[in-house]
Amino acid sequence: AQKITQTQPGMFVQEKEAVTLDCTYDTSDQSYGLFWYKQPSSGEMIFLIYQGSYDEQNATEGRYSLNFQKARKSANLVISASQLGDSAMYFCAMREVNAGGTSYGKLTFGQGTILTVHP
Amino acid sequence: EAQVTQNPRYLITVTGKKLTVTCSQNMNHEYMSWYRQDPGLGLRQIYYSMNVEVTDKGDVPEGYKVSRKEKRNFPLILESPSPNQTSLYFCASSLTGGVSYEQYFGPGTRLTVT
């Protein structure tokens, strides 16, 4: 069974500095997708970044990058130049693949990390 | 605008009173899913649907029902709500067939059962 672990319940960072949010996963699938979502205090789920298991390059989206280490089964999110608006809950998630190699669509989520950005 | 809508956004109810949370998407997605979010547990899948009339249990289906009579709608039904179903509920949709397809989430429904 798939499992996602986020070991940092809370993280603090100074504005304008970079921060890394940890995510490790466990799966026996060869093909999988890793996602990061942001949940601000208003509650909505905002998609940030995606990394495919076969992607050789680390994904980047603006100030977000994903440090993907396949052998270690880790997919850490790096936020550069933190802003006050980055204060939120962050979830790492993995997408399941069925026996036929296509995706059911289910996302398995980690417990989340609350990021607080200090001015 | 591509979106997933949920109603109601907030609901306080009493134990045993049947309720339905509606979910609708306008992106013609085959896949739809319900999750619940509880502190320290992340989001857990309740039920999902691969297409019209095709539904299946997720990780925490007890106490819930769903139906998929139309592609765009995927209501969540609590026949006899109990206090342990107090939670934040999300509906989500996506295309199927590949792991890269992003899931689009609704705004969430905060349910309190007293």
Give a quick account of the main beta sheet of chain A: strands, pairing sense, barrel closure. 6 strands, mixed
Straight-line distance between termini of chain B: 36 Å
Order of helices and strands of chain B: EEEEEEEEEEE
Q: What is the number of helices of chain A?
A: 0
**Sheet bearing the most strands of chain B, described?**
7 strands, mixed
Summed over residues and divided by their number, the pLDDT of chain A gives a mean of 92
What does the oligomeric state look like here?
heterodimer
- How many beta-strand segments of chain B? 11
Largest interface (CB within 8 Å) is between: A-B, 28 and 29 residues
Average predicted local confidence, pLDDT of chain B: 94
Note the topology.
The complex is a heterodimer of chains A (119) and B (114).
Chain A (H helix, E strand, L loop, with lengths): L2 E3 L4 E5 L4 E3 L2 E3 L6 E7 L6 E7 L7 E2 L2 E6 L4 E6 L8 E8 L11 E3 L3 E6 L1
Parallel strand pairs in A: 2-12
Antiparallel strand pairs in A: 1-4, 3-9, 5-6, 5-10, 7-8, 8-9, 10-11, 10-12
Chain B lengths: L3 E4 L2 E4 L5 E7 L5 E8 L3 E10 L2 E4 L7 E2 L9 E3 L8 E8 L9 E2 L3 E5 L1
Parallel strand pairs in B: 2-11
Antiparallel strand pairs in B: 1-3, 3-8, 4-5, 4-9, 5-6, 7-8, 9-10, 9-11
